[in-house]
């Protein structure tokens, strides 16, 4: 099991204490841990399972069921590319290749410099804007020209 620093453990403990006893606490706790830590450490799953009186396996089941949760630390900037049918037909694959090349990162991985994480996702429910990407929580649509994404990534690099 990975070794977390004291500050991260404190953050997790506070989240667990805040939601303990509420309705549906597991998902609330996981949501907050994901938001504060950027991922769900295994130790957080242990603490959540203990506080909620459920098995670690059931907490892990929730983590792996919802795509919003991840067990690996993410990069500073998270980019989701929709690979649903409408986006795929309109060039999501080419968009993804451009993104991977520009970020020097593979799909569903984080770049070595820790700056970018690229995730392929299912339909985001915005097919009218295909192809669609979400960059740091902001939706970008009509990305038929991969150069638009290239410029977006370069702007992020310059701002770092
Ligand atoms: S297929 Fe991409 S938003 Fe629906």
What brief labels describe this structure?
elongated, 5 strands, 12% strand, five-stranded mixed β-sheet, 7 helices, single chain, binds FE2/S2 (inorganic) cluster, 160 residues, alpha+beta, Glutaredoxin, 49% helix
Provide structural commentary.
The protein has 160 residues and is an alpha+beta fold. The protein folds into two domains: 6-65, no CATH class; 77-159, Glutaredoxin. The chain contains seven helices and five strands, in the order ααααβααββββα. It has a five-stranded mixed β-sheet with strand order 2-3-1-4-5, covered by helices on one side. β4 (133-135) and β5 (138-140) form a beta hairpin. The longest helix has 14 residues, at 6-19. The chain is elongated, with a radius of gyration of 18 Å. The two termini are 32 Å apart. Residues 82, 84-87, 123-127, 130, 132 line the site of FE2/S2 (inorganic) cluster.
Q: Could you say which overall geometry the principal axes of the C-alpha atoms support?
A: elongated
Give the strand order, joined by hyphens, for the main sheet.
Answer: 2-3-1-4-5
Helix-strand topology string: HHHHEHHEEEEH
SS field, number of helical segments: 7
């Amino acid at each position: 099991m990975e070794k977390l620093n004291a500050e991260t453990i404190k953050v997790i403990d506070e989240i667990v204490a805040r939601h303990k006893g509420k309705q549906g606490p597991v998902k609330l706790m996981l949501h907050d841990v994901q938001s504060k830590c950027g991922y769900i450490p295994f130790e957080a799953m242990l603490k959540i399972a203990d506080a909620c009186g459920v098995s670690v396996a059931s907490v892990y089941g929730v983590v792996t069921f919802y795509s919003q949760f991840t067990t690996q630390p993410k990069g500073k900037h998270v980019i989701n590319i929709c690979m649903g049918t409408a986006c795929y037909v309109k060039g999501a694959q080419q968009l993804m290749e451009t993104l991977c090349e520009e970020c020097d990162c593979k799909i569903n991985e984080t770049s070595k410099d820790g700056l970018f994480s690229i995730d392929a996702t299912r339909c985001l429910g915005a097919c009218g804007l295909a192809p669609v990407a979400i960059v740091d929580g902001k939706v970008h649509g009509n990305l038929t020209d991969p150069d638009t994404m290239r410029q977006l990534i370069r702007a992020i690099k310059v701002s770092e």
